[in-house]
């Protein structure tokens, strides 16, 4: 569920230019899909708000959906199924 939610956020950050299903199915980086710098700023803001974790603009994990999901999982206890290892969703 985490990857799916992130794909929805990527779609929203892109202003709908990227469909969540396309983001999930892609075998390339988010910039290769067409996510531009303004969309990245929107995405980071949404991720920080929804998941309550800091996202560094220079983080190499930002290039891919899986990298971003891994960063969030490591900092929030969220696993790939959308479950938390403790506490409530922020």
UniProtKB/TrEMBL annotation:
Name of this chain's protein: Acyl carrier protein
By its UniProt entry, which Gene3D superfamilies does this protein fall under?
A: ACP-like
Carrier domain segment(s) = 20-58
Q: What InterPro entries does this protein's entry cite? A: ACP-like_sf (IPR036736), PP-bd_ACP (IPR009081)
Q: What's one Pfam family here?
A: PP-binding
């Amino acid at each position: 569920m985490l990857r799916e939610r992130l794909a929805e956020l990527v779609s929203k950050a892109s202003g709908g230019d990227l469909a969540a299903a396309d983001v999930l199915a892609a075998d390339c980086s988010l910039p290769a899909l067409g996510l531009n710098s303004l969309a990245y700023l929107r995405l980071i803001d949404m991720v920080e708000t929804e998941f309550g974790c800091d996202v560094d603009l220079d983080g190499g994990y930002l290039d891919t959906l899986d990298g971003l999901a891994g960063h969030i999982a490591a900092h929030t206890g969220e696993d790939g199924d959308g479950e938390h290892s403790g506490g409530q969703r922020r």
